[in-house]
Amino acid sequence: MFTTACQEHLLPGETLQRKWDFAQSAGYGAIELRGKGGHHFRERLPELRKALADGVVMPTVCVEMRHFSGAFDDELRRDAVRQMKSQLSVIGELGGRGAMTPASYGMFSRRLPPFEPPRSEDEDREVLLEGLTELGEHARREGVALFLEPLNRYEDHMVNRLGQAVELVRETGLDSVRVGIDSFHMNIEETDPPAAILAAAPYIEHAQVSDSNRLQPGAGHLDWPAWLGALDAAGYEGELAVECRLNGDPAEAVRSVPSFLERAAA
Question: Does residue 8 carry a catalytic annotation?
Answer without folding.
Answer: no
